[in-house]
């Protein structure tokens, strides 16, 4: 990265990290990003470490981690807590697999409903609406 040792304003940091200024402020309130000291009569300045931190947070979010989980990961960021970080990732992986399983069930049921709609085209009552009234039967 370029030499941005505390040379950016919050707007520059937002542009560099491709986030909104309000996102930065929110992350600061949540403890995800430190808020630099304001020099007397000056404005706060940010640098490469802040971009790295925002990249960490955004990447973790893309992997499905909540902000609370990211706070936990950031506490483990000194490189000596690999087993704890791995445990958090394993838990997240289990959550993702559970969501995929639920989504596959939803896909199956919706597919069946749509197929019934197509098979009964022209009927006065809608099989999809009727199915929703009847409820989902677990197979």
TrEMBL record:
Alphabetically ordered keywords of this record? Activator, DNA-binding, Mercuric resistance, Mercury, Metal-binding, Repressor, Transcription, Transcription regulation
Q: Which residues form the HTH merR-type domain?
A: 7-76
Q: Which InterPro entries match?
A: DNA-bd_dom_put_sf (IPR009061), MerR (IPR011794), MerR-type_HTH_dom (IPR000551), MerR_fam (IPR047057)
Q: Which PANTHER family match?
A: MERR-FAMILY TRANSCRIPTIONAL REGULATOR, REDOX-CYCLING DRUG-SENSING TRANSCRIPTIONAL ACTIVATOR SOXR
Question: Any idea what job this protein has?
Answer: Mediates the mercuric-dependent induction of mercury resistance operon. In the absence of mercury MerR represses transcription by binding tightly to the mer operator region; when mercury is present the dimeric complex binds a single ion and becomes a potent transcriptional activator, while remaining bound to the mer site.
This protein is called Mercuric resistance operon regulatory protein
In which organism is this protein found? Marinobacter azerbaijanicus
Q: What is the lineage of its organism?
A: Bacteria, Pseudomonadati, Pseudomonadota, Gammaproteobacteria, Pseudomonadales
């Amino acid at each position: 990265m370029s030499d941005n040792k505390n040379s950016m304003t919050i707007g520059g940091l937002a542009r560099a990290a491709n986030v909104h200024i309000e996102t930065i402020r929110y992350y600061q309130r949540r403890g995800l990003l430190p808020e630099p000291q304001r020099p007397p009569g000056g404005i706060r300045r940010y640098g490469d470490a802040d971009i790295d931190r925002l990249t960490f947070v955004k990447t973790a979010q893309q992997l499905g981690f909540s902000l609370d989980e990211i706070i936990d990961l950031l506490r483990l960021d000194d490189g000596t807590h690999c087993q704890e970080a791995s445990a958090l990732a394993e838990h997240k992986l289990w959550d993702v697999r559970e969501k995929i399983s639920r989504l596959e069930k939803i896909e199956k049921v919706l597919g069946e409903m749509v197929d019934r709609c197509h098979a009964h085209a022209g009927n006065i009552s809608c099989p999809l609406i009727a199915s929703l009234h009847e409820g989902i039967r677990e197979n």
